[in-house]
Write a structure and sequence with these properties.
The chain has one domain. With 104 residues, it is mainly α. 85% of the residues lie in helices and 0% in strands.
C-alpha cells in the first residue's frame, strides 16, 4: 500500500508511458517492411546453401576423379613390378608351375 501511495504522489493519475506520434498509424508499414527483409534474408540464405552444396559436390567429384586417375598407372605397373620381382628372385616359370600343381 505504501508503494502505491508513493507512485500516486509522484505521477498522479496520468500515464507515464507515451508512444511516438503516429506510432499506430505507421505500425503496419513497419511490420510489412520487417517481414519483407526477413523473406529477402531467407532467400539469400537458401541460395547460399544451394551454392555451397553445389560447390561441395563439384569439389568432391573433382577430387574423386583426380584420385582415381592417379591410381590407374599404379595398377598397370603392378604386373610389371611382379615380373621384375620374379626376375630378380631368379624363379623361372617352370618352378612356379610345379609349385602351383603341387599345392593343389
Amino acid at each position: 500500500m505504501n508503494e502505491e501511495k508513493l507512485i500516486m504522489d509522484r505521477f498522479g493519475n496520468e500515464n507515464p508511458f507515451r508512444v511516438p506520434k503516429d506510432y499506430f498509424n505507421e505500425f503496419p508499414q513497419r511490420i510489412m517492411k520487417r517481414i519483407e527483409r526477413q523473406r529477402r534474408r531467407r532467400r539469400i540464405i537458401r541460395w547460399s546453401i544451394a551454392a555451397m552444396m553445389t560447390g561441395c559436390i563439384l569439389g568432391a567429384t573433382f577430387v574423386f576423379n583426380n584420385f582415381k586417375q592417379q591410381n590407374l598407372p599404379l595398377e598397370a605397373d603392378n604386373s610389371q613390378y611382379i615380373e621384375d620381382a620374379l626376375d630378380y628372385s631368379m624363379i623361372n616359370n617352370m618352378e612356379i608351375a610345379t609349385y602351383l600343381t603341387e599345392a593343389e
